[in-house]
Amino acid sequence: DINIRIFILHIYHFLLPRAAKSGMVLSEQPYDIPDQQEDDDMKLWGGRFEKETNAMVDAFNACIGFGSRLYEQDILGSIAHATMLGEENIIPPDDAKKIVEGLKGILADAREGKIQWSTEAEDIHMNVETILIQRIGEAGKRLHTGRSRNDQCVLDTRMYARQSCVETRALLDELIETLLTIAQDHLNTIMPGYTHLQKAQPVTLAHYMMAYVQMFLRDRKRFQYAYDAANVMPLGSGALAATTYPLNRQRVAELLDFPAITQNSLDGVSDRDFLLDYLSAASLCMMHLSRFCEELILWNSSEFHFVEMDDAFSTGSSIMPQKKNPDVAELLRGKTGRVYGDLFSLLTVMKGIPLAYNKDMQEDKEPFFDARDTLLKSLPVFTAMLRTMTFREDVMEKGAAGGFTNATDCADYLTKKGVPFRDAHRVVGELVNYCIKADAALMDLSLEELKSFHPAFEQDVFEAISLKTCVEGRCIPGGPAPSAVQSSIDEARVQLKL
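RESULT FIELD:
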């Protein structure tokens, strides 16, 4: 049917760019198909069926376009499974050895880009098994003994998720180290702190950077939790009810470096919480990057001019020659919504699925892969952008001097002189109103002017409300004083080693 052929063509050309993005090669006829499989359309499960699958269903059902990135995990999992089958004499040990050697050869060829994965073989599991049978013959047909694609798929995904958590944490560590270096260099760089995007109190650039360090340290813990959630071995769950074969699940877990095995076969094949844990952590991490980018975009504007973006991380305008736009920061901010969408996509997929496996779960990988790829591209470009920025220390300090950021310290001064804080608050509020009308700062007023508002003011008030004193006086743990920030930096470095 011409309409079916057109549909298949569209699907195939949809898969090709996705394949190219992952370095995968797709082919309609990648390898010689054994005679007994030609009539079965390459399907290793075709014995039950009398009719060929509709071509549209084949195209709709296929996941090799994105699932091929799991080839390494799939082959390593199969090697462990076959090794155990041979050791337990569930299959002949000689066949197990042939299978393992055959799989190692496929893995080596795949790593060198010599394998052309087939869209006709539906998924990565059937691709690998079909190639294995072609290469080693009858022994390859024993590989799937005691195993289902249901537990095989979740094993591959857990292994990939585990690896993704390690990669993400490594990039987070680089970002945190960069922030710690900036903080160490700017312990005494005074700048305004804000609430409601209005100047509030003076802090330091180091204190600001350390606020984001705390966020990313929490992200780091979340990815460790996601790693632990993924680090459980599900193989042996079968399709849903385990198997009658005496599988040594602990041996497979040992071979694949899993510290534990799943405890319920129904849950083992249908659990995707570990992916949601990664997606949740990724969403929060991207949210922190987005908040940071928003601040940097503001700071880079001519209204703030606290920072200067490096030319290598800025772009220009096609019409306005003077423009230097913080496009990298803006794009990072935009990609946050994409990762949120990935999280909600999988949450929505999983929300109404009864036990155990359902085909809906094939939709788990694309949002996970997309979020993982987005985050792993976002973290290094953000870190590099941060490293190359120039901080305008003079502009920051000048910004802290305006906006009455020392007003709270002025009220505290009166309180320490015995004035009730609520009265001190009112007095300083009146002072600020007076200064606004006179276009002056608190430091610009004479002692006589201050005394006209309250007799408790003395000459030492000017030292008490200087920006340096305002910052250094806040030396309790977690405060912006250089001594407190240094302690925070030291503690963060300890946490990075954990």
